[in-house]
Structure formats: structure tokens, C-alpha cells
Design goal:
The chain has eight helices and twelve strands. Helix content is 27%, strand content 20%.
Length: 387
């Protein structure tokens, strides 16, 4: 078992997110006891974890995790208390989440601790109205209901509230939308934000929403077989997760447009001026594929003695989404070159790279030819003697 107390409103769901890959592949069950913030900005909310992340891992990877929230904690005090019981699996299977199916139901919950009377209902009503309009637009009418409950939490630490919406499909997809109540936001705006986030996934037929995609990367890399998910354009979190998953596991990822094959045969498809690359629509679905973990007996390039990144030649990828390389950082030498006005980028072949590709990046690689962050060298600072 493991215990951790953030001591602030730092997110407990991020602690869970970092613990799950280790716990799911350990030799014995894990018990987690965590304290901190349960519903805070810039992190998955607790109800998103229990309504989207864990059900997806259970359904598609076979990971059994039971989660209990004993007490919610809001910014700035935190103080939330949760526990999880995680059963390990012998092997993670590859997954294939590219068939959206049909929407089977939409549920949600508004949590409230000390919010003024009427605020939770206003949040709920605005979210329901937005989602009902989306369902009508998609041709569902009233065949799919939107059931959003209100939970007033008297045990929570601090004043706050949130809303999490979850849509389930007939093919086992779990899609979410969420928002945290803030003083600067009107109650109706909070509900609309959560509903708009979920509606984007439903309208575009994503099987994995943009907030879940980066959480699945490590599990895809550790799987025994290939995996494929249909999702939104990769976020910076996802690009970074792919970069380090490839470095740590030896797995390889590719990112292609979901409609690449269809567009390839369309003579009227829009092309960019450089090299004929198609214009990217931020809302259009993409397919993220992973080769899975290499066989144990296969020695990967990154594990060879004396390995250097420059010794490896990246494999060519087709239909790779341009500009998917994260800005990892630069060393002191690069910064010094910039101050002197020297060019620090590698020569670029304008016939190969699209206009929006980062200078010096490798267009054939999913993430480009980026290295791990380098520890800056220490420099001595001369101190003038006081007169």
C-alpha cells in the first residue's frame, strides 16, 4: 500500500494517474490512500477519473480499480481524502478504439460545497440544455436522455463546486466534459463549458476525448500488442507522453488523420502549397497507433551500450500530423548562439517540411528529432568587489 498527503489543493487524481501504470503491472494488489485536492483546475476532476478514466481502463485493458472518495477538497485548502484498490494484470492487451458506435446514455453530476442556493441547479440546467441541443443536431431527438444529478457535499473542505458529464456509446467508449465553478464565471457558463467539451467529442465521433488521450499513451506503450485510438488532434500533454513513452519502452507511435484514406482518393481535397500536404482541421479526428512493447529478447536501440540518439535513424511515417514535436528545451550553447545572432537550426529541406513544421524538426518522425532535456552547465559569476 502507499500513502501520500499533498498538504495543499494539489491534485490527487494526478497522483492516481502516475501510480496506475505501476500498480496495474505489479506482482500484488495495491492500496492507495491519498489526500489533497479532488476537484481543482488543470487536472482531471474526481468524477472524471471514476466516470471516464477507470471505466475505460477496465473495459479495454482489463485493469480493475475500485475508487472511493471519503471527502472532497477544493482550492486553496485541499484536504480531500480518497482511496483506491488496484488489481494487477498479467499482461496489457492491445486496444482498438476506432468505432464510435451510437450514444447510449449521458449522465453527470454537479457537486457543491457551500455554493449559494440555486447555483448548482443553474449549472445543471445550462449543461442539460446544451447537450439536448447537441443530441437534436445529431438526430437522436429524445431517444437519449440527459440525466444530471446534484450532490451537495457537507463533508468537503472549503467552498467550491464542479460538474462532470459522461457519455457512453454502444461500443464501450466513455467520453467526458467537465468544468470547475469559479467566482469570475457565471453559473450558466460553467455548465455550458462542460457540455461544449463533451459535445465536441460527440459531434466529431471521437472514441477517446482530448483529456483522456494522454492518459492512455503509457498503457498503449506497455501493451503486448498494437493499439489504435480515434481521438482529437493530440494535445501537448499527449505529444510529450508519446515522446517519453517511446524513449522508455521502445514502443513506436504514429499519428494519422482518420479520413486520410478517404481524402487520398479525393481529387478535390485541399492541398497546401508546400509538398501537397493537406490542411489540418483541429476538430477532425486523428488515429493514434502504437506498436506495443517490443519483445523482451529484442534489444532496442535505446538500451544498447554506448547508445547515442544521433546513431538512430527514425523510421518513416506516412500521413503524420505536422508540427507534433513538443518544445523540450534548449541548452546553454544554443542560447549563447542566439545572443550572438548565429543560426542554431539544422538545415531544412523546404521541399519536405510543411510551413508549420518546427525549424530543424524531422518530418518523418511522429515527434521530430528532439532530445531529452539537458542539465544546464554551471557557470561561474564574477562578483565585483564592493568599494
Amino acid at each position: 500500500s502507499a500513502k501520500a498527503d499533498v498538504g495543499t489543493a494539489g491534485s490527487v487524481t494526478l497522483l492516481v494517474q502516475s501510480s496506475l501504470p505501476v500498480a496495474s503491472m505489479s506482482a500484488s494488489p495495491w492500496q492507495l490512500d491519498l489526500k489533497g485536492g479532488t476537484d481543482v483546475r488543470m487536472s482531471p476532476l474526481w468524477n472524471y477519473l471514476t466516470g471516464v478514466t477507470l471505466p475505460t481502463l477496465r473495459k479495454h485493458f482489463g485493469i480493475q480499480a475500485d475508487a472511493t472518495c471519503h471527502r472532497r477538497g477544493y482550492y486553496p485548502k485541499g484536504g480531500g481524502h480518497v482511496s483506491l484498490s488496484i488489481q494487477p494484470v498479467k499482461e496489457l492487451p492491445g486496444i482498438n478504439m476506432v468505432d464510435f458506435g451510437k450514444i447510449s446514455k449521458i449522465t453527470g453530476q454537479v457537486t457543491s460545497s457551500g455554493l449559494p442556493e440555486g447555483v448548482p441547479e443553474r449549472i445543471r440546467r445550462s449543461a442539460v440544455n446544451e447537450l439536448e441541443a447537441t443530441l437534436k443536431k445529431l438526430g437522436y431527438g429524445r431517444s437519449v436522455s440527459v440525466d444530471v444529478a446534484i450532490h451537495k457535499d457537507s463533508k468537503a473542505i472549503g467552498t467550491g463546486g464542479s460538474i462532470v458529464l459522461v457519455a457512453e456509446t454502444t461500443t464501450g467508449c466513455y467520453l467526458g466534459g467537465s468544468a470547475v465553478a469559479e467566482r469570475k464565471l457565471k453559473s450558466e457558463k460553467v455548465g455550458e463549458m462542460a457540455a461544449a467539451s463533451l459535445s465536441e467529442s460527440l459531434i466529431n465521433g471521437y472514441c477517446v476525448d482530448e483529456h483522456l488521450q494522454d492518459q492512455l499513451i503509457i498503457f498503449m506503450a506497455l501493451s503486448s500488442g498494437p493499439s489504435k485510438i480515434k481521438t482529437a488532434a493530440p494535445t501537448l500533454h499527449t505529444r510529450t507522453a508519446i515522446h517519453f513513452a517511446e524513449k522508455l519502452t521502445g514502443a513506436s507511435f504514429t499519428i494519422t488523420r482518420a479520413d486520410a484514406e478517404k481524402r487520398e482518393g479525393d481529387d478535390n481535397a485541399e492541398k497546401e502549397d508546400d509538398g501537397g500536404a493537406e490542411k489540418e482541421d483541429g476538430a477532425s479526428p486523428v488515429i493514434i497507433e502504437c506498436s506495443g512493447r517490443p519483445p523482451a529478447e529484442e534489444e532496442t536501440c535505446s538500451k544498447r551500450k554506448g547508445h547515442l540518439d544521433s546513431d538512430c535513424k527514425p523510421s518513416a511515417q506516412s500521413d503524420v500530423v505536422p508540427g507534433s514535436s513538443p518544445d523540450i528545451g534548449e541548452t546553454e550553447d544554443v542560447e549563447e548562439g542566439k545572443r550572438k545572432g548565429e543560426s542554431t537550426a539544422a538545415p531544412v529541406n523546404s521541399d519536405v517540411l510543411p510551413d508549420n513544421a518546427p525549424s530543424g524538426s524531422n518530418a518523418d518522425s511522429v515527434l521530430g528529432d528532439v532530445g531529452l532535456p539537458q542539465r544546464p552547465r554551471r557557470t561561474r559569476v564574477r562578483r565585483e568587489k564592493r568599494s
